[in-house]
Every structure is written in C-alpha cells, then in structure tokens.
Amino acid sequence: MPQTTLHPTQMIDVGAKAVTQRLARARGTIRMRPETVELTRNSQLPKGNALETARVAAILAAKNTPQIIPLCHPLLLAGIDCDFEFDVENGRISATATVKCAGQTGVEMEALTAAAAALLTIYDMTKGVDDSLEIENLVLLHKSGGKSGDFRRDTQSP
User: Fold this and answer.
1) Staple partner for 94: which of 46, 61, 85, 115, CB 3.0–4.6 Å?
2) In what helix (H) or strand (E) does residue 134 lie, and over which residues does it extend?
3) Is the entire prediction scored with pTM above 0.70?
C-alpha cells in the first residue's frame, strides 16, 4: 500500500472570523404505514405524544451537537425550532429543524442533528405499532450568514 501524507484531525480556528447572524434549516422524513401517521398526528401512540417529544429531542440535540459531532464548535444558539408535515396518503412525516445564532461559524450541523434526533424519536415512539419504519432524505435545505454565502437547496430535491 502506498504511503500518503495525512492531515491531522483538528478543529478549525474561527477566531479571526467576524460574528454574523447565522441560520440553517434541515429536513428529514420518516416513512411508515398511513395509519401510523394518523396515530402520531393525533397523539394516540402507546408511548404518548411523539411530536412534542420529538420537538424537545430536536432542541436538546441542537444544543448538544458538539458532544455528538467531534469537531463542531460549541455555539450560543439563539433559537431552535422543529416543525412537522404530514403526508398520510404516502405514509410520511417530515421534520424540519431551524437553528439560529450570532457566531463565527455556521449552524448547519446543529440543524441536521436536530432533524435527525426528531426523526429518531418518532421512530422510537412508533416502533411498537409499526415495523415498516424507515428514515430517509436528511438534507440541509438552507444556510445563511457565512463568508461562503447563502445556500438554498432546490425545492424539488428530496
């Protein structure tokens, strides 16, 4: 095997970057049987209200992202929201997490981690009534406020 020069793992120094208003939005989807979507939306699951539990999980996940993703900077987050959309006919619930801060680095990882935690929580709370669960399409939808400029995913993408 040829020898290669590896760069050491390191946290990027953002100390010289300007503090700007940062925003990131991420979305993911969980597939399930249509009747499970209805049970979830109507808070009729044996474990209780999955959506409010998932919203709290999203908030906790965003706040704790540096403990989960090794090279993320700890940030003072200004706002965390998590909203849900229902597609009963196709058996899908989407979780969209929005995270804001004034900082020197973006909040993309916090938004992605929040959306993932919301979906995993819904999975946990519905697995007792549905064995067809599948999490899919975790994506960054939008980010703004950084040196690299704004990013907006094509709305036709998953």
Assistant:
1) 85
2) strand 134-144
3) yes
